[in-house]
Every structure is written in structure tokens, then in C-alpha cells.
Design goal:
This protein is an alpha+beta fold. The chain contains 3 helices and 3 strands, in the order βββααα. Strand 1 and strand 2 form a beta hairpin. Helix 1 packs antiparallel against helix 3. The longest helix has 29 residues.
Length: 136
Amino acid sequence: MSHSHHSPLPNGEAATHQIGAETPGLWRRLSTTQTMHDGTVLLTWGVQVSSTQQWVGKVHAVGPSLDEKAEAFANAGLFAASKEMAGLLMEATQAWAAQFEETDPDSVEISGADLLGWFAEWRLRARKVLDLAVTP
């Protein structure tokens, strides 16, 4: 995974796929503007790599209403958090992957205490990423 602050997988296995390795660092949402061909200036929200200021994308409202602007703002937050969210999902699908893929359910050996402890810690990190997505 591209998230150096995350703990290794609980079963000791290494992650095999790096989410967002092409754009290292956290992504953030910024208020920007976009001038259209007709000269109209739209309020937009850009998604940028925090450490390099590289632009990942922009989001703008489809119309002038406050609801449409609020929707675009929320979508930009989700877009900015998507890299971290994908990393967390990848981590969750790889944790104890070999045990969960066992074809004989009677031979699966996973410590309930270890799984619960890992999930409690993972859940806090997931909640933090979701909170960042909706924070102005």
C-alpha cells in the first residue's frame, strides 16, 4: 500500500498492490474557479496532492443553486478521500486473505480476538478518512 502510516497486515503478509502509487501523498480539496468559454466564472473545487500541489481533478456544480453547489462540494470531498479509502479497502480485503479464501470452512483458523482488535483499529482509521471527506 502507499500509506506508510498504516500498520502491516495482521497476518504478516505484504500488500501486493499499491493504491495511488502514481500520486504519492495525501489528496486535499481546494476552492478554485474555472473560466468557461463564454466568460462565465464557475466556483469549483480542485483535488490536489498535498505534498506536490499536483492537480488530480476538479469538480463543479451542474447548476447555480445552493443544493447543486453543496453536492459538488461533497463530491470533491469524496474524490479527495478516495485514495485513502481505496487503501483501507485494499488492506481489509488482504487481511487474513489466505484464511478467508480457504475452501473448507472447518479448517479456517483465525483468532477472533486478533481479528476484533485489528478491526477496531482499522475502523478508527476508516472513520477518520470518512470524517475528512465531509470536513470543509
